[in-house]
Structure formats: structure tokens, C-alpha cells
Amino acid sequence: MKKELIIILSLLFTIIIGCDSGGQNEKYADHETAPDIVEVILYSAEGDEELLPSNSVRVGDRTNFEVYATDPDLDMVTLYISQHLLPSELHYGNDIEILLPTQSNKDAVYWLLEDRRATGPVGEWRICFWIVDKLGNESEEFCVHSLIE
Q1: 31: pLDDT confidence band, cut at 50, 70 and 90?
Q2: What's the CATH code, domain 31-148?
Q3: Cα separations (Å) of 147 from 57, 86, 113, 119, 120?
């Protein structure tokens, strides 16, 4: 009876250990998850003033942005930005490509390292952001509207 009990307990222990070790890798099992942009906040400031959240800027103002994104695969590599002067759907200028630092958490906030100047032309703009991971999976575009005066 003791022998049978030891065999049964050994089998149960082996099954429990096997199931547990599979669970440790479960959170990283799906390496095909596309990044997701959760929020984008635009900032602007005149001259040396502090950058504050604003979707309205004047030509010559300093601008910047924060991109809040998530990817459980921890493999986001490139942020792209396209600009559209409305009402046209055509891209205005070239897309901006920013290489992202290595991701250490599934949730990340990216801030452009250098402020840019709003150059115009004056009008309503749609600015779209998307992220590509190392496997080529793309997030949905996340677009915000800005007014350049």
C-alpha cells in the first residue's frame, strides 16, 4: 500500500511540476501580438516656456508628444509618424521614423528626444502614429488633430 501511495504521489508531483513549468512561459507564449497605441498627447510652447498639452500651436512654437503604447511581446522597435494637412488625405512630407529603446515592460511611454518647431503651413492637421515590432506586426494608426495658426 505504501509503495502504491508513493507511486501515485510521484505521478501527481510530476504532473503538477509539468503544468507549473508550462505556466511560467505562458505570458510570453504569443510572440505575434501587435503593439497597441493607447494614447498620444501633443505638447507645445512658445519660446522658452514650459511645454504643455495642446492641440493648437503657432508657426515657430516648439512641439513634442508622448505616445503611450503596450505590447506583451516586449519587441516594439520603430515608431512612425505621418502628417496630413486637411482636408487632403495625402501625406504631407515624409513619414518620421524613430527607433525605440529596448522595451523592458509591456507598457511603455515614448517621448521625442528633441523638441521640433511647428513649420506649417497654417491649417488643420491630422497626425498619425503607429508602431512596428521586430516581427513586422503593426499597431493600428492612432491619429490626433492639431491646429497650426
Answers
A1: low
A2: 2.60.40.770
A3: 6, 10, 22, 12, 10
